[in-house]
Design a protein that fits this description.
membrane; LMBD2 protein; transmembrane; 23 helices; coiled coil; two-stranded antiparallel ribbon; disordered C terminus; single chain
Length: about 675
């Protein structure tokens, strides 16, 4: 079992990262290099979080062995026995042999740093480039990242010159490496505290509000109003871009040198626009450079970039609108079924996707009613209380982890109590729950935040390549300082505990921060205390109120703008609901018509065909050729009339349609 735990976690984390990437990315449409780079970045970050508890338990065992070796001892099998006190140092079930973890951490850390600082920024520019060739995209990416890379080289070069000129500094390569790691971790810790302060409050509060049916429904109406505005803006933007593409396609003819670029742009357009532009083309007309002014390749590359962005945004808003409609319909069904006397959950609309038979067998309407109307609100409340308790412990430990005598950090107290009894299962579970909760608070904020339309992680395969790569960059920059912060909370970092004990393999890779004393003794200790201020600001929704004042509508219960958007979203959901009801009623009438008159039409058609065959045979033997032609054409007319009668459906008058809006009735007619 010495390396089995490490191997199992490596495999499990890979499939976890693959599952999340499949939820947000699109393996079929996005470039393979983008998928591989994002998967590698997510995988390495998740791997650090899952493997670090094993490193802690292995380090505790190694410390016990050092203590045993420094005193008279006897070796016995898988543990070492102290002679005077008869103390036993049992091997943990997940023990990792010496020499494996340092190599493992070194490969994982430096690969993630290479991704976040060099490869992923380059691939971001490459993915957003509108170039028509690989060389053109690489050139554009290098130009866009020249300032980005040049700034780092300038700072590093100035630092090297300062060290070389100043005789008081005698830095070696290991110290330079430690300074680079410290600089990267300082930048990551600055962003980490901001995201952590938001997640510690918002995650428990979101689960508490999840138990409020009215709250969720009102927020869904609010989202519907905002999403409809974004959807209309995306459709208008797509129409404008397609109009520019149409003009370019008409001006650049088939024998123009840039026609290949235009064809590449047309392939990225939606199918209906491609067909419309294909019908209006006249490829038999030659171009004349003297008479017409044609766009340059640079302007076509810019147009190509705009087409990719507008099509992706339009597709994303369409999918999100359908998902939001299903969510709103379901919440309205829950509100209606709460007062149901039969205690069976009744859906207004049937699911459009086929459900699993096993789920249908166990998750019956009665079970669904008890879960949605009774158990789920209480489950969310209990979960919110547990998460809030974890948040309070984290905030307290962040403010007191620098105190070693007495030990005030609760996480350090738990680990030290378990270390005395060498309960490795408890140590690993406590470490895993702690770092897992910290990771959820930070990573969930990364998945929730939205920077206008440049960075946005949308589920159901609607995230663009730029946002996927940007999320990989954030994960790689946030995970190392997150793990160092966790080791500080548990006093497993010698810099915090001030003990001359064996450090963890992860800390040994980071190097001693004593090279930069103002960072090790100042910034790393006192800056995490700002999480208290950020939690208070998040609790009172100060950021939401500031965004609302700046014109970015946010969901606030005491705002008049929020009430107006809720009413607007409620009306939009009501219209979509009526539209879907009319569609289902039409399908039901059509199905009933076919079931009722389908057999009669089939028998009528068979009799007509039989009569036609008899008349045709009689005309061939006893009548002339014109009479035969007339008889067959009459038979075809009879068959056409029967087929038209079969496809017809009865007219239906719906009294509810009188109260509908005039615009909807016109569109229906």
């Amino acid at each position: 079992m010495s390396g089995a735990a490490l191997g199992l976690e490596i495999v499990f984390v890979f499939f976890l990262a693959l599952f999340l990437l499949h939820r947000y990315g699109d393996f079929k449409k996005q470039h393979r290099l983008v998928i591989i780079a994002t998967l590698l970045a997510w995988y390495l970050c998740f791997l650090i979080v899952f493997i670090l508890p094993l490193d802690v338990s292995t380090t505790i065992y190694n410390r016990c062995k050092l203590a045993v070796n420094s005193s008279p001892a006897e070796s016995n099998g898988s543990y070492v026995t102290l002679a005077p006190s008869k103390q036993k140092c049992f091997k943990p079930w997940s023990y990792i042999p010496d020499g494996i973890m340092p190599i493992f951490w070194r490969v994982v850390y430096w690969t993630s740093q290479f991704l976040t600082w060099i490869l992923l920024p380059f691939m971001q520019s490459y993915a957003r480039s509108g170039g028509f060739s690989i060389t053109g995209k690489i050139k554009t990416a290098l130009i866009e990242n020249a300032i980005y890379y040049g700034t780092y080289l300038l700072i590093f070069g100035a630092f090297l010159i300062y060290v070389a000129v100043n005789p008081n500094f005698n830095l070696q390569w290991n110290q330079l490496q430690t300074i680079g790691i410290a600089a990267a971790n300082t930048w990551g810790l600055f962003l980490l505290v901001l995201l952590l302060g938001y997640g510690l409050v918002e995650i428990p509060r979101s689960h508490w509000n999840g138990a409020k049916r009215g709250y969720l429904l009102m927020k869904t109406y609010f989202k519907a109003a905002k999403l409809m505005t974004e959807k209309a803006d995306a459709e208008e933007n797509l129409e404008d871009i397609m109009e520019e593409v149409r003009k370019v396609s008409e001006s650049i003819k088939y024998n123009h040198p840039l026609r290949k670029c235009v064809d590449t742009i047309l392939k990225k357009c939606p199918t209906e626009y491609q067909e419309r532009m294909g019908r209006n083309m006249d490829d038999y007309e030659d171009f004349d450079e003297r008479q017409n002014s044609y766009p340059s390749e640079k302007s076509l590359a810019k147009l190509h970039k705009q087409v990719i962005y507008s099509v992706q945004r339009h597709r994303r808003t369409q999918v999100q609108w359908q998902i939001l409609l299903e969510q709103a319909f379901y919440l309205e069904d829950v509100a209606k079924n709460e007062s149901s006397a039969t205690r069976q959950f009744v859906h207004t609309f049937h699911s459009q996707e086929p459900e699993n038979k096993i789920i249908q067998y166990f998750y019956t309407p009665t079970v669904e009613w008890y879960w949605e109307c009774l158990l789920r609100p209480w489950f969310y409340r209990v979960l919110a209380v547990v998460l809030a308790t974890f948040s309070v412990i984290v905030v307290w430990s962040e403010c007191t982890f620098f105190s070693t005598k007495p030990v005030l950090s609760l996480f350090a107290v738990f680990i030290q109590l378990a270390e005395k009894t060498y309960n490795y299962i408890y140590i690993e579970m406590a470490c895993f729950l702690t770092i897992f909760f910290l990771s959820i608070c930070v990573y969930s904020t990364v998945f929730r935040i939205r920077v206008f339309n440049y960075y946005y992680l949308a589920s159901h395969h609607q995230t663009d390549a730029y946002s996927l790569l940007f999320s990989g960059m954030l994960f790689c920059r946030l995970t190392p300082p997150l793990c160092l912060n966790f080791l500080g909370l548990t006093h497993m970092d010698a810099t915090i505990s001030h003990k001359k004990t064996q450090p963890t393999a992860y800390t040994s890779i980071m190097g001693s921060m004593k090279v930069l004393s103002f960072v090790a003794d100042g910034f790393y200790i006192y800056y995490p205390m700002l999480v208290v201020i950020l939690c208070i600001a998040t609790y009172f929704s100060l950021g939401t109120r500031c965004l609302n004042l700046l014109g970015f509508q946010q969901f606030m219960g005491d705002s008049e703008m929020t009430s107006d958007l809720i009413d607007e979203g409620k009306e939009l959901i009501r219209r979509e609901k009526r539209k879907r009801q009319r569609q289902e009623e039409g399908e039901n009438r059509r199905r009933e018509w076919k079931e009722r008159y389908g057999n009669r039409d089939d028998s009528t058609r068979s009799r007509a065909v039989h009569t036609d065959q008899k008349e045709s045979s009689f005309s061939e033997t006893n009548a002339s050729r014109p009479l035969s032609k007339y008889t067959r054409s009459n038979g075809r007319t009879e068959r056409d009339r029967i087929e038209l009668l079969q496809d017809a459906e009865p007219l239906d008058f719906n009294a509810d349609s009188v109260n509908d809006d005039p615009l909807e009735s016109d569109s229906g007619r």
